[in-house]
Amino acid sequence: MATYYVDFVGGSDANAGTSTGTAWKHSPGMAGATGTPAGTTPAAGDIFYFKKGVTWPATALPLTIVWSGTSGNPITWFVTDWGTGNHAIFDAQSTDLYAILSYSYSYNTLNGIDARNPAVQGTPPDDIYYYAIKFGGGGALGLNITNCKTLNGSIFFSSTGGSVKDCVVDFGNVSLGEAPAIEVMYSSNVVISGNDISNFTYCGIKTGGEGAENSSNVTVEKNFIHSPGSIPTSTVQAGIILRDSTTCTYRYNVIDLHPASAGGQYGMVSWNSGGSNKIYNNTIVMNGTGDGFQTSAQSGNIFRNNIVYNPGVGYDLLSGTGDVDYGTVYSATTEKTGTWTWGANNLTSDPTFVDVTFDAVADFQLQAASPMIGAGVAYDSYHDGVNTDYWGTTTPQGASPDIGAHEVAGAGPLTLIIGG
Question: pLDDT band at residue 415, thresholds of 50, 70 and 90?
Fold first, then answer.
């Protein structure tokens, strides 16, 4: 196991690369690498530190990762406290198709990289993509992307085991095709969590694809999906798309489509094959049109404890089978369509958010007297007093969890002690 340092501005590929004072200009796998990094083969447990605040231009990109670590000893492409700011910047300058690319290699971790401005690829009008990071596929195992950023581009992720966590994905309103901001295909047993996603056109997060692109046992949780861009002319716009997704879990996400430029969006939409997915404790805010949830074809999806605020239709249950209960649909033109099981505990109450201007994610929290408090149901063994809501509060605080992505702290029943 070895540690290397990379600084495009102050480094040299003639250096040893083993300290900040002898940093390389390029890492192995970067375009333009010569000398020592070009002759270095990354191995399991190796760490490559990129200097924060430094930009690697298109001439140094993409970083093409063609080595595998091992389980417990990944190869890590990382930042530390070296440099300024929070990220190392990989700018494809609309020239390279990717800032970072890896296919079929396992046990690699990205952390602290700002990947931006990839060139367009694909066939109009639908298949138009801007992949800032394309990571996985080909049977890759154990991949992780943490604390990264993208600008004017997306993350494509495909792995068995692994995660995309705590990333800021600004899609930049760049594509009017079927290009998700985070796309999870050919994947199983992965977690997509804590990401901030904005300026998307087609959708914020998509799991699955068509047929063989199915994803299973994916957990999508505690993501903030907001500030949508333009609606594609030939397809839909949605916060989350479940396409050919099976036995996946979608929980404690905040999806804000209220500032959308036109009507017809979907908070979450499922279609094609798959099913038996669990969708609970999500907060979805619409702009008076579109569907909070639209479902077709999939069977056995279960919805619990969800808030749908100001939709055209709360639940548009076109086909398939499933079960909806313990949620609220507020200020809808139509509460529901279709013939799914509709539980007796569903509400149409105003959730009473902290601030309905919805300028920040904290505005989606509940007021102290909200009728959502304690009105949910414990589900999926999640509400155990240890697991948490979007903001990190353990759930439940009382006898039953709250509806939506916010569990109001200290909102449980009071115990009166007399006579001390």
Answer: very low
